Hints:
Distance between the termini: 33 Å
Number of strands: 7
Strand order of the largest sheet: 5-4-3-6-7
Oligomer: single chain
Amino acid sequence: MSLPSAVSGRTLVTISGARVQVPDPDRLLHLQFRRFAGCPVCNLHLRSIVTRRHEIAAANIREVIVFHSSAEELRKYTAELPLDVIADPYRELYREFGVSTSPRALLDPRGWPAILRGVAQAARAILRRGQVAPPVKPEGGSLGLPADFLISPDGRVLAAKHGTHVYDQWSVDELLALVPAEQRA
């Protein structure tokens, strides 16, 4: 799979209508590709990002999360996320960055513990806070694979990871370890 070595400039619009420059002219950009709106496994991962967002910001990184769902569907599940969330229901960005789907997203046993934890946390959120249940038939399907890209202000892709199963993405510690010393705030 050929990965982009550089990203051309563009402006993306978040589900709340904010504009996001890619690349970000002032800091590193962690472009995350997740699965569908309401994905329990994606929400499990994003909670770890939100919990440590101050450390991420201190490392001069902006988080931008892309889902292959519509903005309308995403708003049901991500309204309270303090992150830039981008809807890409036609998978244009997914194709550009070589992010794919595969049955192994769900069939790989390495992802099963995260699936169980994510579903359990979603069930608790539904029961305790009345959160919307994950969709039974998600827009764009449930076989998406995650991917991560760390992009410099000049558009160079400093690091990339294409996941091989549903929970195969950079942890916050792995992300922070990728930041070159000269890029830190």
